[in-house]
Write a structure and sequence with these properties.
Distance between the termini: 74 Å
Shape: elongated
Number of strands: 27
Strand content: 25-35%
Number of helices: 16
Structural class: alpha+beta
C-alpha cells in the first residue's frame, strides 16, 4: 500500500475513530486513515490481524508492505483510487497477506470514504478481519483462480516484453526494455543481471538495482563457480528455490547478495542457433520455488531476449563497420593553410529516434592546388558534398568520388572541368546513386573565390562585422545525373573573400528542418552564424551543437574557411614527429624535438610548462587510443608570439576531465593543460581529432 497523504497537516478532532467493542467481539480490527496527513491508525486487533507488534508499525501505510505482497498492494491501491475517483462512499476487497512465518492468509477489508462539503475525500474509516474460515471452502478455488490470473499476467508480460524488444536496435536498447518498460519488474524480480559471452568469458553488461554489483564479476571465466557461468557451460536453466540452496550451491557469490534478501533466483542461458551468446539472472525476494508453468514462461522469455540481443549485436557490428568505412573515406587530416583559418566538422545522422548513429554519404575536403602549398599559401580547393542514401554503399561511393574529385582538382583543372569530370566518373560507376556537390577554388593572395555548384545548396559568407548572407551561385545538375542527361555545363560564380571574411560550406542536414522550407532554413542558419563567435573553430562547434540539439535524420558536413588579415597570426616555423604506440625510441625523439624547438625558438622561460603539457598530451593519445600520435609544433606570429603544440590521433572520443583522488596518480591531465597553457582546444580531423594548446612566448 502506498502513502497517499501530505506531510503532517493537523488531524481531525475526532481522529482516530474509536472502535465499537462489538468489532473486537467479531474478531475485526478497525483503522482510520487521514488522507491529508497520510496517517493510518490501527487498533490493537488490526495489529494482530496484520501480525505486527505496535513497535513495528509507525503509522505510515507504506509500512504495511512487509505483510502485503506487491501484487496485492497494487490491486488494493487501484481499488481505493477508483472508489475515490468514482465518488463512491465505500469499498470492500479480499486480499492475501504474508504472516511473520511466511505463510499467506486471506483477509478482508471494508472502508467508508468521508468527504467534505466540496466532495473532496478527507478520511477513510474501515475494518479489517481474518477471512480464513470464511473462505476455507473457497480457498482452493481462489488460489487456483489467482494462480491462473498470475499465469495470464506473466504470459502477458512476456508478450509485452517481446513486443517492446522488437523495436530494440542496440544492446543498450534491449537492456532499457528489460529494466524500464513492462518487463521484468512486473514479474516480481528484485534484481537483474545479464552478461555476454566474449572470447571464452562472460562480460557483465547489466546489473541492478544500484549497489548490487558483486566485485570481481565484471568479467568471469566459464569455469568459475557462478550460476551464469554454469548455465552457459551446460546450456540448461538453473532455478534456485531457496536461500539455503543458493548459499550451498554458490558460496562465493551468496555473501555479496545477503543485503538484497534474495529468496530464489532463475538463471537462463541466452541461446541462439544452439550457441550460447550470454546469460541472464532474475533474483527474487518475495517468492520461494518455481512451478513448471513459471519455468516455461521464463525459458520463453529468455529465448525472446536472446533473439533480440543477437539482432542488436548484428546491428552494432554493421554500424561499427559502416562508421569505420566512413571514417576511412573522410580526409584523415586537413592541411594547415598559410593565410587562412579552417575548421571542418562532421555529424552522423540519428535515424528513427535511436541514440545510435547511422552511416551517410556527406563529406568535406580541402585540397592544395598547383601554385600554392598547404604551408605556403596560394590556392586551395574547398569541397562539400552529399551522396544520396544512408548506408555503406553511400559511404563507399562518397570515398571514391572524393578521391577522384581531389585528383582532378590537384591536376590543375578549372572548377567547371573538375565538376564535369566528377559527374562523368559517378555516372560510369556501377551505382544508381547521385550526389550534390559544391567546389570552391580559393586564391588566398587575391581573395578571389571561384565556385561551381552541382545541385547543392549555396555557400554563405560572413563579414568582419558579423553579418552573414547567402551567396547565390548558378548551378548545374547533381553529379551523375548531369552526365546521364548530357548536361555537363557548370557555370562558375565569383565571390570576393576579403581579409577577415569567412566562407561557409555545408550539407543540407544543417539547413533543413521538419515543417520548414529550404529558404526558411537558410535564413535561420544565417542568423545563427551572425550571432556566433568569430573564431572559426568555435563557430563550427556551435553549429554542430545546434544540429545535435535539433537531431534529425540527415548527416551534417561543414567546412569554414576564414581569410586572415595582415595583422592576423600567421604560421611560422613548423616541426612534426610521428609517434607509434609501443615505440619508446619515437617517444624519446618527440621529447627531444620539443626541447630543441623550445630552445631554438627562444621560449626557454616556459620550457618546463611546454614540455610537461606536450608530454601529457602525447601520453594520453597513446594510452587512450589504439593508433599512433602525430605531434606538431609551430610558431604563430602576429599581435603576440605563440608556440602551438598539436597532438593528433585516430580516435573521435573527446578528452574528458576526471576527478583524481587524494592518492590518485591519474585524472589531472586536463587540469594541468588548463593551468599551464594560454589557450587549448580540440578539433575534429576526419576520422580522429587534434588536441592543441598555445603558449605566449617572447
Amino acid at each position: 500500500m502506498v502513502d497517499r497523504g501530505a506531510s503532517s497537516p493537523s488531524l481531525p478532532d475526532d481522529w482516530p475513530a474509536h472502535p465499537d467493542p462489538i468489532l473486537a467481539l467479531n474478531r475485526m480490527g478497525s483503522f482510520d486513515w487521514d488522507l491529508d496527513s497520510g496517517q493510518f491508525h490501527m487498533d490493537a486487533r488490526a495489529h494482530d490481524i496484520f501480525d505486527l507488534r505496535p513497535d513495528e508499525y509507525d503509522g505510515n501505510p507504506a509500512s504495511l508492505a512487509v505483510r502485503v505482497p506487491p501484487a496485492e498492494g497494487i490491486r488494493l491501491d487501484e481499488l481505493v483510487s477508483q472508489a475515490i475517483k468514482d465518488g463512491s462512499e465505500n469499498y470492500g476487497a479480499y486480499f492475501r497477506m504474508r504472516l511473520r512465518d511466511g505463510t499467506l492468509r486471506w483477509t478482508h477489508t471494508q472502508g467508508y470514504i468521508r468527504r467534505d462539503e466540496t466532495g473532496r475525500p478527507r478520511r477513510i474509516v474501515g475494518i479489517v478481519r481474518d477471512a480464513t474460515e470464511e473462505l476455507s471452502d473457497l480457498a482452493a478455488r481462489s488460489d487456483t483462480s489467482a494462480l491462473d490470473d498470475a499465469r495470464r499476467e506473466q504470459t502477458n508480460v512476456v508478450q509485452l516484453t517481446t513486443a517492446a524488444l522488437a523495436h530494440a536496435r542496440t544492446v543498450h536498447d534491449v537492456i532499457d526494455v528489460l529494466k524500464d518498460t513492462h518487463g521484468l519488474t512486473h514479474l516480481g524480480a528484485t534484481s537483474l543481471v545479464m552478461g555476454l559471452v566474449e572470447a571464452g568469458r562472460i562480460r557483465l553488461i547489466a546489473e541492478g538495482p544500484e549497489g548490487s554489483f558483486v566485485p570481481g564479476t565484471l568479467v568471469t571465466r566459464l569455469d568459475e563457480p557462478y550460476p551464469m557461468s554454469e548455465v552457459v557451460r551446460t546450456l540448461t536453466p538453473r532455478f534456485i528455490e531457496s536461500p539455503e540452496e543458493f548459499a550451498g550451491g554458490y558460496p562465493v557469490l551468496w555473501p555479496h547478495l545477503s543485503d538484497l534478501r534474495i529468496t530464489s533466483a532463475a538463471y537462463l542461458p541466452l541461446i541462439v542457433q544452439a550457441r550460447p551468446i550470454g546469460a541472464m539472472g532474475l533474483l527474487y525476494s518475495d517468492r520461494r520455488g518455481f512451478t513448471q508453468e513459471d519455468r516455461n514462461i521464463l525459458v520463453a522469455l529468455g529465448s525472446s531476449i536472446a533473439q533480440s540481443l543477437q539482432r542488436a549485436m548484428f546491428y552494432e557490428q554493421e554500424k561499427d563497420i559502416a562508421q569505420g568505412l566512413q571514417q576511412a573515406m573522410l580526409p584523415r587530416t586537413i592541411p594547415s593553410v598559410h593565410g587562412a583559418d579552417v575548421a571542418v566538422r562532421y555529424r552522423a545522422a540519428t535515424i528513427g529516434g535511436s541514440q545510435g548513429r547511422d552511416i551517410g554519404g556527406d563529406w568535406y575536403d580541402l585540397i592544395p592546388l598547383p601554385g600554392g602549398t598547404p604551408s605556403g599559401g596560394g590556392r586551395v580547393g574547398a569541397v562539400i558534398g552529399d551522396v544520396q542514401g544512408h548506408d555503406t554503399h553511400a559511404a563507399a561511393v562518397m570515398g571514391q568520388l572524393r578521391i577522384v574529385l581531389k585528383a582532378y582538382a590537384a591536376e590543375g583543372h578549372t572548377p567547371a572541368t573538375v565538376m564535369a569530370r566528377a559527374s562523368v566518373f559517378l555516372h560510369e560507376l556501377d551505382t544508381d546513386r547521385f550526389a550534390t556537390c559544391l567546389y570552391a577554388e580559393v586564391d588566398l593572395t587575391t581573395g578571389v573565390v571561384q565556385v561551381v555548384r552541382a545541385g547543392h545548396i549555396d555557400p554563405l559568407l560572413r563579414g568582419l562585422d558579423g553579418t552573414c548572407r547567402r551567396v547565390p551561385v548558378p548551378g548545374g545538375l547533381p553529379l551523375g545525373l548531369s552526365a546521364e542527361f548530357g548536361s555537363l555545363d557548370y557555370p562558375v560564380g565569383t565571390v570576393e573573400l576579403d581579409p577577415g571574411h569567412t566562407l561557409l560550406l555545408c550539407t543540407d542536414g544543417l539547413v533543413e528542418q521538419p515543417g520548414t522550407d529550404l529558404d526558411d532554413g537558410m535564413r535561420a542558419l544565417t542568423a545563427l552564424i551572425a550571432a556566433g563567435p568569430d573564431d572559426v573553430r568555435k563557430l563550427a562547434d556551435r553549429l554542430i551543437e545546434v544540429a545535435e540539439e535539433r537531431g534529425g535524420d540527415d548527416d551534417v558536413a561543414l567546412l569554414l574557411l576564414r581569410r586572415r588579415g595582415p595583422d592576423s597570426p600567421q604560421a611560422g616555423n613548423r616541426l612534426q614527429q610521428h609517434v607509434a604506440p609501443g615505440d619508446p625510441e619515437a617517444l624519446r625523439e618527440a621529447r627531444h624535438m620539443i626541447r630543441t624547438a623550445v630552445r631554438t625558438w627562444g621560449a626557454e622561460d616556459r620550457s618546463d610548462e611546454i614540455e610537461l603539457v606536450a608530454d601529457e598530451l602525447i601520453t594520453n593519445a597513446l594510452m587512450h587510443t589504439e593508433g599512433a600520435a602525430i605531434v606538431t609544433l609551430r610558431v604563430l606570429t602576429g599581435t603576440d608570439h605563440r608556440l602551438r603544440v598539436e597532438v593528433e590521433d585516430s580516435s573521435s572520443a573527446l578528452p574528458r576531465r576526471r576527478e583524481a583522488g587524494e592518492s590518485g596518480v591519474s585524472g589531472r591531465g586536463l587540469l594541468l593543460v588548463e593551468l599551464l597553457t594560454d589557450a587549448w582546444g580540440v578539433e575534429a580531423r576526419g576520422g580522429g581529432k587534434c588536441v592543441w594548446c598555445e603558449f605566449v612566448v617572447p
